[in-house]
Amino acid sequence: MPLRESSKNSANFTDLLKFRIDAGDKILENHLLNAAGNSKYTSHRIQNEIISLAGQVIIKNIVEEANSSKYFSVLADETAGISGHEQLSIGIRYVYDENENFTLKEEFLGFVKLDKPNADSIASSILEFLEKSGLNMDKLVAQGYDGCSTMAGEIHGVQKIIHDKYKKAFYFHCASHKLNLVINYISKITEIHNTIGTVKDVIVFFRESTLRRNLIPNIPLFCDARWSAQYKSLRSFAENFNTIFKTLFDIK
């Protein structure tokens, strides 16, 4: 979509152009003042074209870096877009060598629409996207996905299909996803489950009222999707425990 907000406000793209003019860009100012309406290049179609071209340049630079490295791995995960359609987010991970300063990089390349959520369709979409991007597939040495059978299956999973074509591309279960699964499993222990439940109830109690929210420091709500991200709420709660306890006692 173009860079624009609601109809009540001026578009972001227009604001950026005004910002450049305010910064002293006389050439741009003269162009917008004197050019014909159909040659100002500020329409939504032009904005979308600029976004698309910028994306192509970014991907080209990433691919050039990855191809200059010795190896790279592919990362992919399924997600639903705002329209509800299933799509695949694809990224790569590689070590970039710039004057012997080795930097580990993990870059997002784009989204791919999925017509069918089966292993054959997903594997085909990943390979087609990587090959069209211009990556040197001989340097593909690893695949990183979650542990569901469609992606990780040893008989006919995505990783097996890709490994059959590129023998060096071994599969590794996503470390972040593994951590999330472990923490989720640990939370079933009664003591931990009860503690987390109590902390969550206290946070919600303060946040559901503006008056109560102002009585204690801001503590973020628990992340329901990622258990590994809940440490932020727990750490903040622990740091402000005395204040929270005193405030609850005063309210009582």
Written description of the protein model:
With 252 residues, this protein is α/β, with parallel strands linked by helices. The protein has 2 domains: 67-173, 2-Layer Sandwich (Nucleotidyltransferase, domain 5); 180-251, no CATH class. 50% of the residues lie in helices and 18% in strands. It has helices at 12-22, 26-34, 44-68, 119-133, 149-152, 158-165, 175-186, 190-207, 210-213, 231-239, 241-251; strands at residues 72-80, 86-98, 101-113, 140-145, 170-173. It has a 5-stranded mixed sheet with strand order 3-2-1-4-5. Strand 2 and strand 3 form a beta hairpin. Mean pLDDT is 85; it is low at 1-7.
Short description:
The protein has 252 residues and is α/β, with parallel strands linked by helices.
Question: Any chance you could write out the topology, listing elements then pairs?
Answer:
Blueprint: H1 12-22, H2 26-34, H3 44-68, E1 72-80, E2 86-98, E3 101-113, H4 119-133, E4 140-145, H5 149-152, H6 158-165, E5 170-173, H7 175-186, H8 190-207, H9 210-213, H10 231-239, H11 241-251
Parallel strand pairs: 1-4, 4-5
Antiparallel strand pairs: 1-2, 2-3
Helix pairs in contact: 4-6
